[in-house]
Design a protein that fits this description.
single chain; 5 domains; binds glutamic acid; two-stranded parallel sheet; 20 helices; 9% strand; mainly alpha; 488 residues; Rossmann fold; Glutamyl-tRNA Synthetase, domain 2; 11 strands; Glutamyl-tRNA Synthetase, domain 3; elongated
Length: 488
């Protein structure tokens, strides 16, 4: 086969749906498996009512953030431009091809009004039948139709569908799909305003752009036979089809923007990394051959195989994404991580503390960037005492043991001259030995005493080091007093 050419063809609707991004990713992977493969961006903006300003920038930005770099597209050009359908329309090409299709018997002019169609629908509904428009204009001779068009009558161009027989095609994911032609409607290809419908524009553009593989949502599966009839009328090669199952919120509902759980940008704003989101969605509906779950884009390109895309909907599991995001954050080198999280630390902690050291402890714990500030407010705002925090089964501590440990810790820390993790560690471990207790019986109460929090990033040693000697001792003293008070 000649080089593989795939296209991502989003409609500019104002945000990047997770399912659309997955389509883009699969298109990219299919193309890049071929060393000469091309991944093309085409903007499908013929449905002018759905246009949302700024959408195209969101599309560029998302592809860039995800490293899905296109080889041809509106912003970089290519041999098959323009790459925006409204610009392509201005060249008159859709109308030209629609008229050509009429001449070769694949389509016809239709002069029916909305009312004509509505009347037919009402009759069908009254009879309890499912409605398929039966176009009376089918029987108008081409000569007459052309005269009416020349006279300025309003018209659309509709596809001709054989009344009988079946149309079949093979989808890479769903296998052989066969439909009765009688169930296909004679869709509009060119609207009265001269704009092509998606149904038509996608065929013409995929052909002219030499697209070899079409990846898209399975909602297009049922219309694909109609597209194939157009390809056949023109005598064009039909592309390889890869229809993908929907991305689901749960068993019954698709992810939707309305529920606030479908937009890539929303996840980025919630503190997820584009790489992690991309990695996660690669696995939504595609099953790798091994147990591996963390993939670079390069690794995905190697491992991806359309034959392993599932046919049933894939449930989007936010917890799994959160876990994966945490893996990505923990695997970053500390300098890169520090640059990334600095603003999140600054939201919660004054700059008298060492942000880099805070970044180090946060890295071990945070799964998303947005949870960072609430984890570290205790540095500036020492929460109030809570005796119950000192009782911990696993650490084998209770308020009584804690009090002994805290007093011992206070004494050695007070005498410590060089305040750093190594020295703090050393003196505290000496106390553990001297008191013949377990590490946790000393370190856990110290951590609680200086944070008054059940969970914190970092442990007693790291946090003491960041707080500094004065603040650590003052908090320890305070907690010792509070524990003594409650003990009495
Ligand atoms: N513009 C269509 C959409 O956003 C693209 C479908 C396709 O890839 O063919 O749903």
């Amino acid at each position: 086969m000649s080089e593989i050419r795939t296209r991502f063809a989003p409609s500019p609707t104002g945000y990047m749906h997770i399912g659309n991004l997955r389509t883009a990713l699969y298109e990219y992977l299919v193309a890049k498996k071929d060393p000469n493969g091309k991944f093309i961006l085409r903007i499908e903006d013929t449905d002018q009512e759905r246009l949302v300003e700024g959408s195209i920038d969101i599309i560029y930005e998302t592809l860039k953030q995800c490293n899905l770099i296109h080889d041809e597209g509106p912003d970089i050009g290519g041999d098959y431009g323009p790459y925006v359908q409204s610009e392509r329309m201005k060249t008159g090409l859709y109308k030209e091809y629609a008229e050509k299709l009429i001449d070769i018997g694949g389509a016809h002019y239709c002069f029916c009004t909305e009312d004509d169609i509505e009347n037919q629908r009402k009759i069908a509904v009254a009879r309890g039948e499912s409605f398929i428009f039966n176009d009376p204009c089918n029987s108008i001779s081409l000569e007459d139709a052309k005269k009416r068009v020349a006279n300025g009558e309003s018209y659309v161009i509709r596809q001709n569908i054989p009344k009988e027989g079946t149309t079949s095609f093979t989808d890479e994911v769903y296998g052989v799909i066969t439909v009765e032609n009688s169930t296909l409607d004679e869709s509009i290809l060119l609207k009265s305003d001269g704009f092509p419908t998606y149904n038509f524009a996608n065929i013409i553009d995929d052909h002219l752009m030499k697209i070899t593989h079409v990846v898209r949502g399975n909602e297009y599966l049922s219309s694909t036979p109609k597209y194939n009839l157009v390809y056949e009328s023109f005598g064009w090669d039909i592309p390889v089809y890869i229809h993908c199952p929907p991305v689901m919120k749960d068993e019954h509902n698709k992810l939707s923007k309305r529920h606030g759980d479908a937009s890539f940008q929303d996840f980025v704003e919630k503190g997820y990394l584009p790489e992690a989101i991309l990695n996660y969605i690669a696995l939504l509906g595609w099953a790798p051959e091994t147990e591996q779950e963390i993939y670079t884009l390069e690794e995905l390109t190697q491992a991806f195989n359309v034959k392993r895309i599932n046919t049933s909907g894939a449930i989007f599991d936010v917890d799994k994404l959160t876990w994966m995001n945490g893996m990505y954050l923990r695997n970053m080198n500390i300098d890169e991580y520090y640059e990334l999280v600095k603003p999140y630390i600054a939201k919660a902690v004054s700059d008298k503390y060492d942000y880099k050291n805070i970044a180090k402890i946060v890295q071990q714990r945070a799964n998303t960037l947005n949870e960072i500030p609430t984890m570290i407010t205790f540095f500036d705002d020492f929460p109030s005492f809570d005796e119950s925090l000192y009782t911990n089964k696993k650490m084998k501590t209770n308020p009584e043991i804690a009090l002994t440990s805290l007093k011992a810790a206070y004494n050695v820390l007070e005498n410590l001259e060089n305040w750093n993790e190594k020295e703090i560690h050393e003196v505290l471990m000496n106390e553990v030995k001297r008191l013949e207790i377990k590490n946790g019986q000393l370190l856990f109460p110290v951590r609680v005493a200086i944070t008054n929090m059940k969970f914190t990033p970092g442990g007693a040693i790291e946090i003491s080091n960041i707080l500094g000697k004065k603040e650590t001792l003052s908090r320890l003293k305070q907690s010792i007093e509070d524990l003594e008070k409650t003990a009495n």
